[in-house]
């Protein structure tokens, strides 16, 4: 049996308040780059559902940039390492790895001939370095600034120049090669955050937290003037030139983006992105005909010059680890929730994501189930169960005013589609909820970790941190204990098969164990123990013939119920990231989510 990755619903950029984000653009204009955690994410600009990830960095990556040839990408991380890897092969073979500075890298620039590279950031002994991209040999010094450097750019024409923007409010200009400090520019009164040369190198622009944008001659570095006065009411986080060099795009903490005419230095268009804090704009990119900005929430906006108040499209998703996964009963929509409380509905046919709106939890979602009518039930560590319902056919659910207080922190939940019964396991009790209100509670003397209901037998399996699964019988709203099953490690997940014949349980002792439900005995004498770390989640295929499990070891394993010795390993399903949720869309399609904030859809054909 083989498998293939059908889709990756990519993570959004990881943002931080008050910190600019750097987007990278493909010189051919087809893709763009950003980072999240230790991943570099490459997205197709026309069809963002096509995404690729590079995950070979061992710590957080801050910036990635294409070489002018388009054949290589250089990515820099928090430890000061730069990896140069190829874009042609799917494996992204590493070409070189260098350590130009001894601290966090904030920006990278290539020379137009692909031969030289400059990296800047928060080095301990220096804030930047220029070197040959083939050998790492030094070709000059980046000096003359007293604080970390936020941004750098290479003049794309000869004579070569490098300009840097620093937290000491200055720009520094270097001439070479070999590159030597020429002068500093002190027009900004607060952190200088971005600096970019025009495509022909005839001029460069700088932007700072003082809300100002300045324009300089590309060769002499003489100040030509200020764009706008000031350009924005808040700090300017990023600037990008139009391909013909006649216009400039800027993005700001004042929740707007703007297009400027460079010749007249006047504003052409203002894009109002919203009123909330998360609508602050922390990055921008002008890629061919596409104008892209990134909001503080991580949402990627395609700006529309003809309709500045409404983006052409927005790319949503998660930029924090995903903690919960649910599938709509029609199996065309997948819901994912992250530890910041964001819930996204994904259309599995085209990869389009939309956020669930309304007053949600605002913090980690620990359990989520879809209802028969396309609604959504979520429980979070605000100690509540919340209900989201769709306003119309095919609409994404919206959180309603229906909130059920739980009294203590929920660990897991399950829901019967037919009659709407929901059972929530909190740290103190099991709660039965029907019709949006509590019907009964059962105090617990152990800490529950997971819960599953079998709609046919009305059995409720509850896994505990004490290594025991307890099976209860549900009579309308009353839970009665019946069976106990002991494992060698804390229980992490329990699931009943759709045909009610089996219960699968996973534990922290790396095991996936299958029970038959008639007597709760082991279904076969074959132990499923091929994971190498704690197993986090499991799910049955709709035909009950296969089980998929996801683990801390980054792997997904698909097990056969009929042939227990057979299994398929999807190795590194979420590279360098544990898998936090798994579900089946049909008998040959699996969806997995992980700590890397990515949602992946896999095709695993039956033998």
UniProtKB/TrEMBL annotation:
Keywords: Repeat, WD repeat
WD repeat start and end residues: 54-95, 185-217, 229-270, 315-356, 531-562
Source taxon at top rank: Eukaryota
PROSITE patterns found in the cross-reference section: WD_REPEATS_1, WD_REPEATS_2, WD_REPEATS_REGION
Coiled-coil stretches: none
InterPro entries named among the record's database cross-references: Quinoprotein_ADH-like_sf, WD40/YVTN_repeat-like_dom_sf, WD40_repeat_CS, WD40_rpt
Matches recorded under PANTHER family: WD REPEAT-CONTAINING PROTEIN 1, WD-REPEATCONTAINING PROTEIN WDR1
Record-stated family: Belongs to the WD repeat AIP1 family.
Protein name: Actin-interacting protein 1
Originating species: Plutella xylostella (Diamondback moth)
